[in-house]
Design goal:
Helix content: 25-40%
Order of helices and strands: EHEEEEHEEHEHHHEEHEHEEH
Largest sheet: 7 strands, mixed
Strand content: 15-25%
Number of strands: 13
Radius of gyration: 21 Å
Structural class: alpha/beta
Length: 354
């Protein structure tokens, strides 16, 4: 697998949910890497995983594991990245972090390659951050519209899949469905879904089967959730609009994979659905699915396993010629996590291979 003329890549968290998707992505994209080193917790060391048609042994996460690594992609929890990404950088690797540990650090660029690829060179700490999965589903559609019409305000409502809470979220949904399947009375009386599900709530504040939970993340000041603040703050940073008005409501829905966002966007100039559709059809990382009369609109069951953000229901606001409404969905484990990280790393590979 080694090619001395190409940079060495490390995948930290290779055995996790996002790490598994990452290995699949690496196996199917253009090969820009020499050695690929798989790193995980000591309990996973010794496992052998398939990468680009070859088995690679997983090594334990240690300082020495980064020796000789040019780029290290981190698909691990915030606290693990916060500790280990600076160590990787100190050992000479450029860390591309998929957690929330560094996103709002002013010395760490928050990069979406379709939008601000030049920011990969602005890395004083040797770390580059990846945006959160809900922001990524939406931002690749918002950015080209901003370039065309000048974005002034966003009102967002997310519909977030349970896989955004990790494997435990997926297991919780399936367990709840198995527990209540076949009971056609459920959902017809107050509290009967809660009673049927019992204490099996997993990482959620309420039952997610046969329900939507209007809260995702952790509680912050003013009644906002951490997920809602991420959408606001990360959108501002990626677009370079620190004063952009953004209001978000994040909702957990009984979908396994695929985050969706209903977007109300206000621009500085007049916009119409036809013009917006043409802009989006020419935008990288976007696929337009917008024929409601034929039952064609973006849905997570179609977007799952794909790379683009799917956009549809594009319409100009009834009461404001400068406002646009649309719906966007994308696979939160691919573009929302692993794919964007891989794309950032590929920009670095091109830089290092010059």
């Amino acid at each position: 697998m080694s090619n001395a003329n190409l940079p060495t890549l490390a995948v930290v968290g290779a055995t996790g949910a996002v790490g598994t998707v990452m290995l699949d992505i690496l196996s199917h994209r253009r090969n820009v890497w020499g050695d690929i080193r798989l790193i995980a917790s000591p309990r996973s060391a010794g496992r052998r995983l398939l990468v680009r048609g070859e088995e690679v042994e997983v090594v334990a996460l240690t300082e020495q594991a980064f020796d000789g690594v040019d780029v290290a992609m981190f698909d691990v929890p915030d606290e693990v990245s916060a500790y280990w990404a600076p160590i990787a950088a100190a050992r000479g690797a450029i860390a591309v972090d998929n957690s929330g540990a560094f996103r709002m650090d002013p010395d760490v660029p928050l990069v979406v390659p379709e939008i601000n690829p030049a920011q990969v060179r602005n890395r004083p700490k040797g770390i580059i951050a990846n945006a959160n999965c809900t922001t990524l589903a939406m931002i690749v559609a918002i950015a080209p519209l901003h370039n065309a019409y000048g974005l002034k305000e966003l009102v967002l409502a997310s519909y977030q899949a349970v896989s955004g809470a990790g494997q435990v979220g997926v297991d919780t949904l399936h367990d709840q469905i198995a527990k209540i399947a076949g009971d056609r009375v459920l959902g017809t009386r107050p509290g009967n879904v809660r009673h049927a599900v019992g204490d099996d709530l997993g990482p959620f504040a309420a039952p997610v089967a046969l329900n939507v939970v209007p809260f995702a993340g952790s509680l912050r000041d003013g009644g906002w959730s951490s997920e809602e603040l991420k959408m606001r703050n990360e959108t501002r940073k990626i677009l370079g609009l620190p004063d952009l008005k953004v209001s978000a409501t994040c909702v957990r829905v009984p979908v396994v994979t695929g985050h969706s966002v209903a977007v109300h966007a206000v621009f500085g100039s007049e916009v119409d659905a036809l013009g917006a559709r043409e802009v989006l059809q020419g935008a990288p990382g976007v696929i337009v699915v917008d024929d409601p009369a034929a039952g064609e609109f973006p849905m997570p069951i179609d977007a799952v396993g794909t790379d683009p953000s799917w956009v549809g229901r594009i319409r100009r606001a009834v009461d404001d010629p400068r406002a646009l409404d649309f719906f966007v969905t994308g696979d939160n484990l691919r573009k929302g996590a692993a794919l964007n990280t891989a794309q950032i790393a590929e920009l670095l590979a091109a830089e290092l291979s010059r």
